[in-house]
Each structure stands twice: as structure tokens, then as C-alpha cells.
User: Fold these one by one.
Assistant:
Number 1:
Amino acid sequence: MSLSVRQLHPMFVGEVSGVDLGRPLHTATLAELWRAIDRQAVLVCRGQDLDDERQMDFARQFGELEIPRSGRADVKRRLRPELSDISNLDEEGRVRERNDARRFDQLGNRLWHTDGSFRRIPAALSMLYAHRVPHPGPLGGGETEFVDLRAAYDALPAATKAAIEGLVALHDIAWSRAQLGFTELLFGEKDVLPPVPQRLVRMHPGSKRKTLYLAAHASAIVDWPLPDGRLLLRELIEHATVSDFVYRHEWREGDLVIWDNRCTMHRGRAFDEREVRDLRRVTTRDISSTLDQTA
């Protein structure tokens, strides 16, 4: 059976079938997946059988792996340092307490964001695999929502496109966490991850479409008064996250979802945190800062 892609949203998101991602990909299949990523920005791959090694091996076929913030040698972890632990489990595999500092830090993932934009060389692709998912409940089922920032850019008035062309935003992990009142950063970010500049509008290299580059990490517009810059960023995020641009993914165990951080935002949703939610993410690095890329 050959690889096929079924459209899940009018603007983006494709469901992939006909490929076992736990095995090395043929060159032609890898190229086909890249074309699907460039077109759809988010790919849903159901029914995959991946352990941590196979997930990392799959991701390495798309680029250099990014080490998560918690991947430092002095940080006690449940998983290997190459994996982002998108779970509610502590280092011993127990459900985290409500006042656990790592839980507070992870609540930042429920803000609209793009992975790794607070690094000088930001993230390219993220690949999140579901080991265990909670049952749907009154609070939700831990879904993940995605937006297509290319479509959001296309829908802007011409005057707004002209006004924001060439603007640069500062991205700062401390700012995104502070929005929730969590100012005690866990992994020494103030020392090793200072604010970095990124283009507000960039050219997506695969689709050759212009895209907004937004995130909860975006804290200011360079050379603008701070209040004006934050208002612009908030207004653009509100514009980009209207329902027409949003896909809501309901997780099943065995799902691998791939998304392109260069042209999407995403956020996690609430769930009953007495239940286990164990998802693990591998992320590839982009090739350079957005400032060094064609606008």
C-alpha cells in the first residue's frame, strides 16, 4: 500500500496512511512526506507502533534533533534528554501533584505558541507521539489545537501586511511563563536563553508562502514602545486563532502528529489530571535564525 494523505481541514492538516513510520523510510517516501508537510503543515499518522528509539530515528531523517530545555545533564528526568516529556508524570512515573513546579511550567503549553521560537535557531518540525491518553471528561480530553499561520497571513488586509512587513519580534521563554504568573523558571533559562529576535513575517521555505511567525513567547516588537508592540502581537494572535483557521486534534494511543513550527501555532487543552496523559515529542532544529532567512 502506498502513502496517501486525506485532507482533515479545508486549509491544512492531512491524515497519512500507508506508511510504517517505525521503519527507515525509502528516499521516495521521505520526499513524499516532505511534500505533504510543505502542503499541509500538520500531518496525523494513526496507529503507529513507536518506542522512544524508533521515534527519534524517524525524526532524524528530517533534520538535527533539538535538545529540550529540560535536557540538561543536571536535570532529573523520566525520559531520555532528546525527548520532551509532554505528560503529567513525574520522574518516577507518578501523576504530578497540582502544585508541582514542573506542572506549572507545562501549563505554558496551553497558550498559543510555536516550539522553540525562543532559541536563536528555532524549531522546524515537531513530532508528538501518544503512549497514553486520558478519557474525555467535563474538562476535556487533552486535545491539541493547531492554526495555519499562512492562511492567517493571507487573510490580513493589505494595509496590515504592509505595516508589519519587516518587523522583528523578541521571543522570550520567561515572558510566556510569566503570563500565567509562573516566574520561577526551572532550567536556568535567564542565563542560557535570553530574548532572541525573530521575523514577524517570514517566507515558508517549502510552500513558498508568506506566514506570520507568532507565539506566546513573543514579548515585544523591536524599536516599538512596549505597549504598542504587545497590542499588535495580541491582535495578530487573536486574528490567527479564529475558528476558521483552527484544527482540533483528539488524541488516540498510537497517534504520531507532525507539525511545521515555521508556519503553525498550537496549544494543548485541559483534561482530568487525575488520569495519565503520556505524550512524547521529538523536535528538529531549523537551519538558521529567521533573520538570516529570506523574508
Note: Helices lie at 27-40, 52-60, 101-106, 149-154, 158-164, 173-178, 189-192, 226-240.
Number 2:
Amino acid sequence: MQILDWNTLTADQQTAALRRPALADSGRAEQVADIISQVRAGGDEALLALTQRLDNVELEQLQLSAADIAAASARVSDELKAAIELAIDNIEVFHRAQLPEAIALDTRPGVRCELHFQPIDSVGLYVPGGSAPLVSTVMMLAIPAKLAGCQRRVLCSPPPINDAIVYTAQRCGVDAIYSVGGAQAIAALAYGTDTITKVDKIFGPGNTWVTEAKGQVSSDVDGAAIDMPAGPSEVLVIADAQADADFVASDLLSQAEHGPDSQVILVTPCADFAEQVNGALEEQLAQLSRADIARQALAASRTFICQDLTQAIAISNAYAPEHLIVQTTDARALLPYLKNAGSIFLGAWTPESVGDYASGTNHTLPTYGYARTYSSLGIADYQRRFTVQELSPAGLQAIGPAVELLAATETLDAHKNAVSLRLAKLEKKA
């Protein structure tokens, strides 16, 4: 990784050094819009044709049958099933604790205000296929959907769907599994076809085609809401001279192997440690099956030599990483000062991998700087909240005059009259 001395850079150079690789476009928006139009017009027939053309897979049907699911599940080893069960247990424990409770109180005597929570009725879960079957993503999306109370939970994944994805989906309570991926899957979930019923909200990561499609359907009133905007996977590691260079290198590579457009950053006050990490990266790269992918990601990544940990925190907050790993002598002491991150991993014994799979937290996180304003996926994303208010006559008399004056100040006469008429009737009854 390229090593830069943060304090020798100008402000503009620092901004440029923290800039993420640009997301390739090359007319993708227009191509995705065309795919969406085809699906809206042609439904299942268009999905089958697009799957054959784009994925080179010829399907007879989109939905997996009960027999298909049973056969796929039978092919999953008992050892893998046990690992999935452990992860499910931890994810359920952490997400069940997030279930909110309704609020009901009187802001004044006779003025009742309440906050209630309602699950989103139907949700679509997108799980990427490709070279890395993301079994963990099934759990991260489906478990909170079930706990939140979403009545209909369906999953799309590019064919051929990995057996472990199928097994995990049925284990986590997914109602239907569809063999379709890419922008066409997002279009089907957003607008519906004969086989795939339209959903209210779409969850899950994907490549730039999927990301573009999610953006387009979420901006269409007839489309569907989405979980969050997304970009390539990323990690930032804050490490001091006492950190283990092998551990840090392994954490950087765990993100670099996701894809060529992933970005990893190390921030440390120790130049010698940065060199040690570079050496460890080379040693570990030789052992990786996805070494070529990781090398491409490392080419766009860098190490910053900072003055101290205070400055390291400032750099991290400015970057707002998806994953933030803190490997310092007292990692928890930094936590109150770390403002912008999707998920934080404290200490030498907390690799980012545990959050990806089985610690219990959700690995669906804001990337590309969105951690400044978006949160990690949780129960709240699968529910909507709404308020209720109920006033007694005495309650209206208590706050009515203030409402009248505020409405008059805004020259909203009908608002004022809605209160005034009621107050006048109460006066007549008195």
C-alpha cells in the first residue's frame, strides 16, 4: 500500500487522498433504465430472457419449488449447518433486543401523545451471487425482517443459486426464493410480475447495476423504497505501534478481497509499523485464492502516517468508513470520539470478519461516506413509526389558544378556525 505522511499534504491533497474511487458509469443509468422498462412491460417473459442473455442461464421457472429447496438443503453439510445455526442464534439475540416499545404519555393534562411501530408489510431481499455466495447476507436481511413482523419476505439471487443460500433462506423464514439477479431482479421486486409480487421495500447489497437499479426504483412513486445508498466495501484501521502487523494486514485484506473497487485504509502514528504491515500484506496475499482481486483493491488504497491518535480519529471521522477497526493499546478509550462509521471493531481480538458472520451485529452497512448520515441495518429499517394524539376538552382548552396564535402568525386561517370553532362550542356548553 502507498504510504503518505498526512502532515506533509496540503488540505486539498488530504481531501484527494481520502477520496474514494469513482463509481464507473459509462452509460449504465440508461442501460439500467432500459432493463427496468423491459421488466415492467414483459414481466416473467422479460426476466427469463434477460437471465439467459445476461447470466447465460436458461430457466424454466423463476421460483424455486419446495422440492428444489429440500434438495438444495440436503446437499448442505451438517458442519456448515451448525455454523449457520450459531450465527443465526447470535443475530437473533442482538436484533430481538432492538424491538421498540410503544410510547404513550400526556404532554399536558388531557393532551395524550403516543408513538407506535408497524412492520413494513412486504420486503424483498437481494443476495448477490457471483464468485462469493453471500450466505451471511441472507441471515443479515431475513432475520430482522422476520423479527420485525414483516408479513411477506421474498428473496432474489442470481442463478444458479448456491445451495447454502437456499438452505439459509428457508431456515430464516423466507417465504419465496426466486432465481433472478441484477437490475432485472430489482425491477421485478419493485414493480411485480406474474410470479413475483411487488414489495414495499428492497434490501441488500449488489454490484453497480443493482445499486443503480435500486436508486432508480426508489425515486419512482410507483417503485419501492430501499434500505440505503451503497458503494464498494471499505475498511479503515486505526493502529498504534503496539498493534499486531499480521492482524492488521489480515483485516485490510478481508475487505480488499471483496472486489477490485474495494478500498482499505490504515492510519497510524508509526511509520515503522506501516512498513511492517506492507510486508505482512505481501506474505498473506500469496496465500489468498482471490489475491488478484485484493491486489487491485490495494492499488487504490493507502496508509496515512499521522501525528498521534487524536489526529487518526479526525482522519477517520472525515472519511466515515463502512468498517472501522481500532487496534490500539486501549481501543475502547477512543470510542467516545469516533463519530462516523458504519460499524466499529474494538481491540486486537475483534476482526471485521466476526461482524460479517456471527457476532450478532448486522453487516449491511452504509458505504461510500454515507456513514455520516445513515446507520447500520436493524429492526428499525423494517418498521415504520407513527404518532397518535388524543385530546380531551380540557386538553384542547389548555393548548388551543397557543395553537390559534401560532396559526394566525403563519396566516393559516383554516388551521386557526379548526381550533376556534371547537373552543367556541365548549364555551357555550359551560
Note: The first helix runs from residue 11 to 18.
